[in-house]
Amino acid sequence: MKSRAAIALEAGKPLTLTEIDVEGPKAGEVLVRVVATSVCHTDAYTLSGADPEGLFPSVLGHEGAGVVEEVGEGVTSLKPGDHVIPLYTAECGECKFCRSGKTNLCSSVRATQGKGQMPDGTTRFSLDGKPLYHYMGTSTFSEYTVVPEVSLAKVSKEAPLDKICLLGCGVTTGIGAVMNTAKVEPGATVAVFGLGAIGLAVIQGAVMAKAGRIIAIDVNPDKFELAKQFGATDFVNPKDYSDSIQQVIVDLTDGGVDYSFECIGNVNVMRSALECCHKGWGESIVIGVAGAGEEISTRPFQLVTGRVWKGSAFGGVKGRSQLPGYVEQYMKGELNIDDFITHNMEFEKINEAFDLLHAGESIRTVLHY
Ligand code: NAD
Ligand code: AHE
Ligand code: ZN
């Protein structure tokens, strides 16, 4: 079939809007009509060429929601008409990782996913007879996409797809990092570095966890207003100080924070986020994604003296079993998604959505097919 798509032909160039060919689902696969997708900073990162797993030409996009059109042989958990959120972190329930109870990092399709392929090692997308790579197992920048059954969360048909698409990454990642990775306790002091969708979702999670103080940090002061609306209590622009940002936060908090979250992808800030944690118990969670070849460093003494460095992917959330609950929470008004959506556009304007993200003018732009 033909599908409207925005394809990444090469690194560092805008996406190309065109019509591509999409093959039907094979065994264990599902054809999804994407109704809405957003642009996450990770799409921009991969398009920039900094992602060691970035492949071109490809169909990017991983924050979407849609409707099942057709299922392949052997698919039992989904049927045409079901509403779904594609998952870049699958949940097979059977692999060593799923059975461990210790992580959401399912291994069932991850190896081929990282090579831009479906689990059988081939692709379902092509342009002029030449294959296009998949991306993160989701490729939501095509109106029709093919996704493994294990990479789809079935959600309520009552929920608006152009809102819950944000649960495909940003909102879930931030809230999950607070709840599952850090396990923030009531009264805790939290520092959030970077106030894009991920940082704002961390703030929302910290409010849900009843944190006592939530320090919002960004070099773009325009981000503070929304951070305040989400529940941040203190606002710090590193550019306003001559001291290092870790020293500023340590001074503000009588020795450091209980939890910090890096939501930028900057390895220098990751160090600051660790070093602003309280001696003896402070934990820093790396959420931001850094480019190929970049490395983090600190004095080992920081860890010897009790600070803990952790990372979080998709907020530690197991998508198939937990996302339906996030959708229910949204429907009950217990979880805010709407305030992350600063822009709505028709799909064809997708390159404008990237421009807004780069300019720091949007949190999330939802693209409607
Ligand atoms: P974004 O671009 O919307 O937000 C980043 C924010 O960081 C911006 O507000 C920017 O002004 C701020 N910033 C930049 N440099 C800064 C600095 N030196 N000090 C303080 N603030 C600074 O991005 P996003 O979509 O919120 O994504 C944030 C990061 O999280 C990206 O690296 C993305 O790839 C990553 N991410 C990771 C996961 C995961 O599962 N681990 C999931 C989603 C996104
Ligand atoms: N291909 C990248 C991996 C980047 C990365 O860490 N991705 C996050 C999700 S970002 C969503 O916006 C993640 O979940 N990682 C775990 C995984 O299995 O990919 C690189 O740097 O190689
Ligand atoms: Zn993302």
Q: What's the short story on this structure?
A:
The protein is an alpha/beta fold.
Describe the structure.
The chain is an alpha/beta fold and 369 residues long. It folds into 2 domains: 2-168 and 337-368, Quinone Oxidoreductase, Chain A, domain 1 (Alpha-Beta Complex); 174-312, Rossmann fold. The protein has 12 helices and 17 strands. The protein has helices spanning 41-48, 96-100, 110-113, 161-164, 170-182, 197-208, 224-230, 245-252, 267-275, 301-304, 319-331, 350-358, and strands at 2-7, 16-22, 29-38, 63-71, 83-86, 125-127, 130-132, 144-148, 152-155, 189-193, 213-217, 234-236, 259-262, 283-286, 308-311, 341-346, 364-368. Helix 5 crosses helix 6. The protein starts with a strand and ends with a strand. The mean pLDDT is 98. Bound molecules: nicotinamide-adenine-dinucleotide, ligand AHE and zinc ion. Its cofactor is Zn(2+). Belongs to the zinc-containing alcohol dehydrogenase family. Class-III subfamily. This is S-(hydroxymethyl)glutathione dehydrogenase. Residues 12-367 form the Enoyl reductase (ER) domain.
Features:
about 25% helix; globular; binds zinc ion; Quinone Oxidoreductase, Chain A, domain 1; seven-stranded mixed β-sheet; about 375 residues; Rossmann fold; binds ligand AHE
Can you tell me the overall shape? globular
| Proportion in helices | 25-40%
For the record, the count of structural domains works out to: 2
For the terminal residues, how far apart are their CA atoms?
Answer: 16 Å
- Stated plainly, the CATH topology of the largest domain is called Quinone Oxidoreductase, Chain A, domain 1
What kind of sheet is the major sheet?
7 strands, mixed
Summed over residues and divided by their number, the pLDDT gives a mean of 98
Structural class: alpha/beta
Number of helices: 12
Distinct ligands, ions and cofactors found in the model: nicotinamide-adenine-dinucleotide, ligand AHE, zinc ion
Instruction: Please tally the β strands and state the result.
Output: 17
Strand proportion, as a percent range, falls in: 15-25%
InterPro entries: ADH-like_C, ADH-like_N, ADH_3, ADH_Zn_CS, ER, GroES-like_sf, NAD(P)-bd_dom_sf
Keywords: Metal-binding, NAD, Oxidoreductase, Zinc
EC number: 1.1.1.284
GO molecular function: alcohol dehydrogenase (NAD+) activity; S-(hydroxymethyl)glutathione dehydrogenase [NAD(P)+] activity; zinc ion binding
